[in-house]
Amino acid sequence: MPILEVKDLKKKFENTQVLKGIDFELEKGQTISIIGSSGSGKTTLLRCLNFLETADEGTISVNGKIIFDGRNPVTDPKELRKMRLHFGLVFQQFNLFPQYTALENVTLAPLLGAEAADKDAIIEHGKELLNQMGLSDRMSNYPHQLSGGQQQRVAIARALALKPDILCFDEPTSALDPELTGEVLKVIRGLADKKTTMIIVTHEMAFARDVADTAIFMDDGIILEQGPARDLIDNPKKERTKQFLSSLSK
Ligand SMILES: Nc1ncnc2c1ncn2[C@@H]1O[C@H](COP(=O)(O)OP(=O)(O)OP(=O)(O)O)[C@@H](O)[C@H]1O
Ligand SMILES: [Mg+2]
């Protein structure tokens, strides 16, 4: 059974149909990369998966259980928070809390409402995650004392701290200089090696090809083409995909 199953997902903003029926599946431990031109609906898709937007139609299932159904969407805030925990999201603009240290940023959400007895374990886990991100000497730094690449790695640790089933990235390196991009891609690659289930929206084609198992090409609100990442990026079948990929290499 796939860990994630998205069926016929549709989303409209005012008069614009932004998602026109998205279907895909993701197996546990696998990574999907999503590529496509600006405005094709990539961010909207991630936002719908993370319950930051409510899709109009379609279903989202995690581990075989429907967690979103456009015919009967969950509106109860408590229930919604629970559903949201299936997914973690790392944004392009790290969005760390400026008034908290790296470690506090990572542990804040899991500490909320935790039993006193669990607090030490949560803090230990937060430290472990920052270690994994190569930030063991940066735990007490505030965001403004960190480089963009370091901030993004804190954001990744923060997303992992809630132990999501699926970790989503929305262009995690597009706000970074090339040299900082490399360090962030490296930690994401490490997560893929450890079989973290991920969906990565990216403009880094070499990365999309090498790290992901499957690639999806989105165009104007639909999935125009999907398949093994290497095949799709090296040998796209559709004319539109070829055009998009060759426009990037110019
Ligand atoms: N809250 C909103 N209200 C109205 N229109 C929106 C909203 N969010 C997105 N859109 C529109 O939906 C379309 C898809 O936007 P989206 O951000 O999902 O594209 P994208 O593929 O992520 O693009 P990019 O590569 O530039 O990030 C665009 O035409 C955008 O203007
Ligand atoms: Mg986007």
UniProtKB/TrEMBL annotation:
PANTHER family attached to this UniProt entry: AMINO ACID IMPORT ATP-BINDING PROTEIN, GLUTAMATE_ASPARTATE IMPORT ATP-BINDING PROTEIN GLTL
Main location: membrane
UniProt similarity note: Belongs to the ABC transporter superfamily.
Annotated Gene Ontology cellular component terms: plasma membrane
Organism from which the protein derives: Butyrivibrio fibrisolvens
Keyword Nucleus belongs to the record: no
Keyword annotations from UniProtKB, A to Z: Amino-acid transport, ATP-binding, Cell membrane, Membrane, Nucleotide-binding, Transport
Gene3D superfamilies recorded: P-loop containing nucleotide triphosphate hydrolases
Protein name: Amino acid ABC transporter ATP-binding protein
GO molecular function annotations of the record: ABC-type amino acid transporter activity; ATP binding; ATP hydrolysis activity
Domain ABC transporter: from-to ranges: 4-245
Coiled coil (UniProt feature): none
Membrane topology: Peripheral membrane protein
Domain of life where this protein originates: Bacteria
InterPro entries according to UniProt: AAA+_ATPase, ABC_ATPase_HisP-typ, ABC_transporter-like_ATP-bd, ABC_transporter-like_CS, MetN_ABC_transporter-like, P-loop_NTPase
